[in-house]
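Worked Example 4.2. Consider the chain below.
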Amino acid sequence: MLVAFGCGRVGFGGVGGGGNNPLTDAPASDDSMATGDGAIGDGAAPSNFVAVFTQLPATSAPEARRSSGAAVALDDRIWIFGGFAGATGDKNDVAAYPPSTGQWAAPAVTGAPPARERHVLGWDASNNVLVSFSGYSGTFPTFTHNDELFIFSPATSAWTPIPKAGTWPAARKDAAMVWVPSLNQMLVYGGNNGSGTANRFSDLWLLSVNVGASTAAWTLLTPGGVTPPAQSAPCVGYDPVGRRLILFGGETSDGASTNTTYQYLVDTNVWQLDSPTGTVPSNRSFSQCAWDPGAGRLVLYGGQDSAGNPIAGAYAYDPDAKRWATLALGGGSGVPGNSSDGGATYSTALGGMFWFGGRTATITYSNVSWLLDLQPQ
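Applying the procedure from the previous section yields the following structure tokens:
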């Protein structure tokens, strides 16, 4: 399903849970999209879908890896950065996948960040740059968590470090980051700086980047409602029409995954704990996830169980009906099998969730590109 996104702009200050909230002044996103069973064009979104998997043509694919992150640029190219490639360690390369050709390209870049994995990567649609934050690097048993912020311009193939100044999140890995079109800002949640429960974060931040000045402004939010436990590596997607972050699963400590579902409502600055019906996925973290705007669903594939093993399974969540559904196979060119830690994003050009690489067994990594397309049943 092919859907175009729209963006609004709004100034933003500090927000407290349940008080006066300037987010409510945000202009509406593109209403050509709909959530749940609302209208899409002249039709209605069906309540049931099947999963159609396609192993995409991928000439000159990057080295197999996990935790590279993925983001879609304005010209529909899908970008990855860094990740962990097993015997050759952490990476700091950049590669772009154009859906029109399936020909991966690795441009020569300037100012590349140090090699890292388990960072977050997103597309800033206001400034037309990739944004990379956090992550860690090193070799066992010595790892360094970082709080570095970089932007990458596809137009110039140049990385720019953003100096740390003012209020700034703590160093971490396994956070989640989404773009909020109505605010022209990133929303960053959670993560960890170690293996235990005390090392998890439950903080929620807004990030605004000033590309011309090479500066950034971080705003720590204090939402009301039922706050998720401190956790890392959750499944997330952002619904720009409903103006909400949907969050599922994650790890509250190493080896302790969850299967709870939350929504963060941007306009009211409130967390909401859902009590879903349907078939709720088992406890997991590190899943491949994205919001499918045409279907109005959070799409999830695979992940890692509490024992640290990659697992399979395709699911969709309707945040209006608060219902999880297992996705039956509806054709395509195969099934991915066990997969976690892949770099996932929604591609309008491809019409589904794209992901690259990931972990298919304990220390086995992939460089395959997959598409999961939701089709009406």
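DSSP finds no helices and 30 strands in the chain. Residues 1-44 have pLDDT under 50 and may be disordered. Compare this with Example 4.1 before moving on.
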